[in-house]
Amino acid sequence: MRLQDLDIIVTAPPAPGWGGRYWILVKVTSDTGITGWGECYAASVGPDAMTHVIRDLFERHFFGENPENIERLFRKSYSSGFTQRPDLTVMGAYSGLEMACWDILGKDRDRPVYALLGGLMNERLRAYSYLYPLPEHSMEDFWTSPEMAAESALDLVARGYTAVKFDPAGPYTMRGGHMPAMSDITTSAAFCKAIREAVGDRADLLFGTHGQFTTGGAIRLGQAIEPYSPLWFEEPVPPDNPASMAEVARAVRIPVATGERLTTKAEFAAVLAAGAATILQPALGRSGGLWETKKIAALAEVHNAQMAPHLYAGPVEWAANIHLAASIPNLLMIETIETPFHDALIKSKIRVEDGFVLPPEDPGLGIEVDEDLARAHPYTGTGLHLEMRDAPCDYANGNNFQGGAPAT
Prior knowledge:
The longest helix has 22 residues, at 88-109. α9 links the parallel β7 and β8 (256-258). The strands form 2 sheets. Strands 4, 5, 6, 7, 8, 9, 10, 11, 12 and 13 form a 10-stranded mixed sheet that branches. This protein has a 3-stranded antiparallel sheet with strand order 1-2-3. The protein has helices at residues 47-62, 70-78, 88-109, 113-116, 139-142, 146-158, 182-199, 215-225, 242-251, 264-274, 289-302, 315-327, 340-345, 371-375; strands at 3-11, 23-30, 35-40, 125-130, 163-166, 204-208, 232-234, 256-258, 279-280, 306-307, 334-336, 352-353, 356-357. It is α/β, with parallel strands linked by helices. It has a domain at 116-365: TIM Barrel (Alpha-Beta Barrel).
């Protein structure tokens, strides 16, 4: 069996756009007529440019290759152009193509992908979700309202979720780490208090920051929310500095989580070696695909760290996350995004039930992609999947971070 053809679909989820402005789906076909699907996560360049990168990588390294040769495909792609170091754009392209290879292999052998990764370790996967506005909430006011956040948390708990994530901590700025405004610290503590009082011990609190703070700023904020016992303090400093993150981890009595912006075992190994985090959050459409992330899970295991695969993308990456999660012993939980578009795009083949996901038994990734639906929502914008703002932290008037990339 050889890889023969590639198609790429850039689809845009309808408003409010939870999961990003667009998703890059890859469809790979073998010379035996088996189709595999993958998803490339959150590129640093626009989707048109990324499409050319994906095609170049496929034609250069994947075309005519046996999809079984995952290790060979990784080494060829990782070393491409005399690199042999983490390259976020190349590995993002590779990750989606690698997922598609596993989908093909599972369908060829009539087995789910997790069966090819060591078998079923976890029969039920604990899921978590971001807090999103309920229909009665104001989209503008939600992100700075502890009361609305608590109502959203109660809604998730009523649906069976045992963990909820939120990020009230200020601007999503490209300027690197900054000292939080005192108002942002106060707001963050108010969110934790309101949500903890609403859900009690029925759900864990997952506090996100998106790498916004200096080391000292992260410590100040982390210590302010300690009384509410969050399960994790996510990416408290920019992701390119494991030593600073380790300093935060030593100073704050909340487990540190990181990884959505990292790629390959090389970057995750540096985090573990520095003692920067005990919870790793790889995004499989960026981290190197299923096989590379299985290696990351093994590294985490010997460091007594857990895995919580990240999702701010579409349901194809989610499906890959699920198969990885089903096969590893050190799983904490997986991220989910429940929207009608996510569900329809894979024809409801995998769903969250009472806050947990059951690994699919169907061959491959266990999904059926609705190509017509994906093509009916082409991306026509100019923004990236996610974008950071130019303006710095506002110390006078407060900050209003709008979650993710809401579509207009």
